[in-house]
Every structure is written in structure tokens, then in C-alpha cells.
Amino acid sequence: MRVSVIGCGHLGAPHAAAMAELGHEVIGVELDPDKCRALSAGTAPFYEADFEELLVRHTSSGRLRFTTDLAEAASFADLHFIAVGTPLREDGRGYDVSQVIGAVRSLVPLLHRPATIVGKSTVTVGTVARIQEVIDAGAQVPGVDLVWNPEFLREGYAVQDSLFPDRIVAGLTSPRARAAIEEVYAQILDRGVALILTDPPTAEVIKSAANAFLTTKISFINAMAEVCEFVGADVNTVAHAIGLDKRIGPGGMRPGIGYGGGCLPKDVAAFTHRVGELGAQHAHGLLAAVESVNAGRPLAAVELIEKAHGGPISGRVALLGAAFKAGTSDVRDSPALRLAVRLAERGAVPVIYDPEALAAARALHPEFTYADTAEQAVSGAELVVLATEWPELTADPKLPEDAAGLVRRRVLVDVRNAVEPGPWLAAGWEVWQLGRKPQRP
Ligand SMILES: NC(=O)C1=CN([C@@H]2O[C@H](COP(=O)(O)OP(=O)(O)OC[C@H]3O[C@@H](n4cnc5c(N)ncnc54)[C@H](O)[C@@H]3O)[C@@H](O)[C@H]2O)C=CC1
Ligand SMILES: O=C(O)[C@H]1O[C@H](OP(=O)(O)OP(=O)(O)OC[C@H]2O[C@@H](n3ccc(=O)[nH]c3=O)[C@H](O)[C@@H]2O)[C@H](O)[C@@H](O)[C@@H]1O
């Protein structure tokens, strides 16, 4: 099939490469000329596992190309994925959907034969109806169909999740659109992956509910970390034990500094606002509590750091990690950087290292001090904070030994509860984690 992907950011670019991998001829449309140039040259504009390899393979084979020209995509493709951004409005009252509306409004008059528009961006409940109005007002030919096909991929696993999703959801506005969805995802559906065919409002709620549930699980275990601190219990053991109940499951329940990133925080905020507008009081109360727990996590982390230090810190603090989670260079709404801001407010000097996200962190927070290696960050620091759970930081067997001679006090505060304390304790470190008793050598 000939498909276009409009908006080639963290979602759209890997999605375009995955569509090429599924055998389609793909054109990616990206407004930002630098990003478009990089993608055309086979260079990933951000770190995402396996993505660049796929990009190189398919830009070289000619099955995948990029353009800034929407008209070129409109005349080339029969199916158009919309993957542009839906940031939170500046006043926090729901999404700014202007990129989605703008992209559809520009595309529709350029379509001169029947086509399917497949929305992947995350939108507020009720937005698809607005987009349908834009199509109805602008279509020059009959047969321009709209499908809402929310995306569930995780950054760091974007390629894997695009090629091997748990399910595909399609909110249909016409029976014809069903055939287009079945054709574009045929290879995935042939493997028996569930296809949920439904109406657009249900598709919209499925996406919002999925992210709301994921954040509820994270805030729940973080609230349990707070309880554990009061009674001297161990939250990692609690998470493991309750996760063995199949109804609860072990996934997505790592305690720590809270959820961040370009999606979960804004999606829950937008959903909370929308359910409030709708008057769904219980949903509003539940989601507001989830957000409130999350908002408290950086302070909980600062309090743990100061407890471990024996008071506020005025010197250097090595902050290992800047990305919002391991496996990505994305620092949007990163809990690690939220923590850096808090520490700086209280007089400490964070010195930040990250294996992939240094450039992005520097661009967002030029006021901080950065280090090119973990050892450099640790040098002369009062203590070490593990702020992003990169395996090369949490499981590097040499780091505890190498850092031991560089830091002023051998104190590791792991605010992701991701470090296996053994090697650190063996190298003479105290290990502090959220919702756990401190461990001493
Ligand atoms: N990042 C992720 O892992 C996931 C994101 N989503 C949703 O996907 C959407 C996109 O998210 P990201 O890719 O993270 O955002 P992003 O900001 O990384 O990418 C959006 C891209 O669209 C481009 N763009 C905007 N208007 C355009 C237009 N008219 N024509 C061509 N390009 C245009 C921007 O220049 C930007 O590169 C959001 O609604 C997000 O909630 C959904 C699931 C996963
Ligand atoms: O809608 C989206 O954009 C996407 O948002 C999340 O994906 P992502 O933001 O890539 O990251 P997650 O792996 O879910 O992590 C989000 C945040 O929660 C934190 N987290 C995650 C899991 C956990 O157990 N504990 C925890 O604190 C992570 O460190 C990170 O800061 C969802 O997992 C995807 O299914 C969804 O498609």
C-alpha cells in the first residue's frame, strides 16, 4: 500500500519506518526541515533503539522517503497517518489540538481521489467529531474516510511495539475504512493480534483510559512507598509480591520518582480536565489523586537525599540520568530534571550525566552543569543520585568501585529503586532507595 505519515517525531518517524518494514511504500511528511533532512539522510534525530537501523535500511531501498511537502504526500498515498503533536495547552486546560486540525485541514483539499485518514495522535474525547467536520467542510471528492487508530507504543521500544503491538484499535466512521485498516496492518493481524473495531468515542476513551490506568498503577505503588517509609517496610518486596497475583500483574509498577515524558503527564492532565468538564466526578477524583501523588514524588526524592546526607546540600550532587526513562534521549517532562530543579532550588549544585540525553538536557536546561562521563559527574560530589534507570548505570559492575574514590561520601540515593545494592555495599557505599530501609556496608 502507498501510505503517508504526517508528523515524523517520536511516534511518526518510527511508525513510518515500521510501515516500510511491513512492505508498504511510505512517505513521511515533516514540517521541521532539519528533522526532515536528517531522516532523509538515514540519521535518527533522537535516540530510539533499533530505529536508525530500520531507517537506513528503508531509505536506502527507496521504500521510505521524507518530504516537507504535503502536496507530494497527498498525491502519492491512499492512506494518511496523522502523527503530529498534541501538547498540553499553556493554561493546562486540555490539549492544544491545533497541529492535528491544521494537518487535516491542509491535507483534505489536496486529496483528488478517495483516501483514508488514520489519526494516531492522542486526542481528547470528542476531538474526532471535530476533525470529521473539518473533512466534511474541505473534501473535494467523495470517499475521504476517517479512522481513529490510537497508538500504544512506548519510547525506547517504538519499533518493537509498532511491529508487535498487543492490540490494534480502530474507531471507524465508515465500513470502507475498515478494509483500509485491515489492509495496512494485514501482516500484524495475520499473526492473530487482536483488532478492536469500534466507534470513534470508544477509541478515544480506550487511549485515555490506557494511559490513565498505567499512571494509576505507578502512583499506587508510589503511594505504597510512602506507607512503607512510615512503617519501615520494603516497597520493592511489596510490588513483587502483589504483582504475582495475576489480576494485578508485575508490569508497570516500579516505584520511584514518578512518571514523566512527553505523554503520560500531559495525557492524564488533559483527561483529568476533560472528565471534569464532562462532570464525571468520580473519574475526576481518581485522576486528580493520581496526579497529586506524582506531583509529590520529586519532593519525596529530595527529602530522601537530604536525609541520606544529614541535611540540605550546598555542594555538588552527582545526578546520574537526565532522560525521562532509560532507553531514550527524550527529556520532555523528565522526573530526573524535575529533581535537578528542586535540588538547585535548595542550594545544591547538580552535576548531570546521561548516556544519551546530554544534548537534549543541555538545550532545555543550559543553567545546569553537565559531565561527559559518570565518573566526571561523581568527582568531588557530596553524594550520588541515580535519577534514570539506565542499565549501564544500574548494573555496571565497575561503577561502584570506580566512583568510590571520587565522591566525598560513599552515599548512593537511588530514586528509581533500580540498583541492585550488593556491589555498591561491597564497595563501601550506603544505598538509599524510596520506600526501603537504607542499607549500609
Ligand atoms: N511519543 C510517543 O511515544 C507516543 C506519542 N503518542 C502521541 O503521538 C503524537 C505525537 O507525539 P510525538 O511524536 O511524541 O511528538 P513530537 O513532537 O515528537 O512529533 C510531532 C512532529 O509533528 C511535526 N508536525 C507538526 N505539524 C505538522 C504538519 N502539519 N505537517 C508535518 N509535520 C508536522 C512536528 O514538527 C514534530 O516533528 C502525540 O499526540 C502523542 O501524544 C502516542 C503514543 C506514543
Ligand atoms: O501515550 C503514549 O505516548 C505512551 O505513553 C507511555 O509510554 P512512554 O511515555 O514511552 O513511557 P513508559 O515506559 O510508560 O514510562 C513513562 C514514565 O513512567 C515511569 N515509570 C514507568 C513504569 C513504572 O513501573 N514506573 C515508572 O515510574 C517511567 O520512568 C517514565 O518516566 C505508555 O507506556 C505507552 O503505552 C503510550 O503509548
TrEMBL record:
InterPro entries assigned: 6-PGluconate_DH-like_C_sf, NAD(P)-bd_dom_sf, UDP-Glc/GDP-Man, UDP-Glc/GDP-Man_DH_C, UDP-Glc/GDP-Man_DH_C_sf, UDP-Glc/GDP-Man_DH_dimer, UDP-Glc/GDP-Man_DH_N, UDPglc_DH_bac
Q: Which reaction does it catalyse?
A: UDP-alpha-D-glucose + 2 NAD(+) + H2O = UDP-alpha-D-glucuronate + 2 NADH + 3 H(+)
Q: Which residues act catalytically here?
A: C263 (nucleophile)
Keywords of this entry: NAD, Oxidoreductase
What class does this enzyme belong to in the EC scheme? oxidoreductase
Q: Which SMART domains match?
A: UDPG_MGDP_dh_C (SM00984)
NAD as a keyword of this entry, yes or no, is yes
| Record-listed substrate binding positions | F152, L153, R154, E155, K207, G260, K325
Is Cell division among this UniProt entry's keywords?
A: no
Per the record, the domain of life is Bacteria
Protein name in UniProt: UDP-glucose 6-dehydrogenase
